[in-house]
Design brief:
With 86 residues, the chain is of the alpha+beta class. It has one domain. The protein contains 3 helices and 4 strands, in the order βββααβα. The strands form 2 sheets. It has a two-stranded antiparallel ribbon. It has a two-stranded parallel sheet with strand order 3-4. 19% of the residues are buried.
Length: 86
């Protein structure tokens, strides 16, 4: 999915998801380790574009790691275990 959210008075929010439904973050193809981040809308990156999520910021700074954004907007913490099991 690729989407641009336009809201008057705010910067356009560009977001996309990969084939797994995870939010696309700034990729780090040279990473030696991948870290799956799970959580709520804070993890997902509510109100920020893909390249501004905290995972993207870490991917730009920590070259040995790639942080994969598996945050889910509007999902209770108790439901995240179900997402991980899939």
């Amino acid at each position: 999915m690729n989407l641009i959210i336009k809201k008057p008075g705010y910067k356009d929010i560009k977001l996309s998801t990969d084939l797994n439904g995870f939010r696309t973050s700034y990729p780090n193809s040279t990473a030696k380790f991948k870290i799956l981040t799970v959580g709520d809308s804070f993890t997902w990156g509510y109100h920020v574009s893909n390249n501004d999520t905290w995972q993207s910021c870490l991917n730009k700074r920590l070259k040995d790691f790639e942080f994969v954004n598996a945050g889910v907007f509007d999902l209770a913490l108790t439901k995240h275990l179900c997402v991980l099991k899939k």
